[in-house]
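Late entry, written up from scratch paper. The run itself happened at the end of the previous shift, but nothing got recorded in the book at the time, so transcribing now.
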Amino acid sequence: MPITLIIDHVSVAEFGEPHRRIRSVSGLVGEVEWNHTQVQAIEHIEGLLFSYYLFKDDRPVRLVVGRTAAGEKFLKTVMDGDIPELLMQLSSIPAPESP
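Output as recorded:
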């Protein structure tokens, strides 16, 4: 059974095709921060290691692996169509704090 991770932030490239713009997703488990690239998250979903969720209107929404017409894999939510709109609406991954 996959471990559930809640996505709090996303790193999105400024330009490019929408399915290629997601760079990474991140969140917290207790006090431990995690950050997975899109490629890692896809591998974890397909390998049943992790399941990822984000919250929309206080309801959990599951991430799935989408495919373009050309067969390219990308992250999206079960509510998204061909563009990972809900995922791209999350806040950006915060920059590390300076000491």
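The longest strand covers residues 59-67.
(Scratch paper discarded after transcription.)
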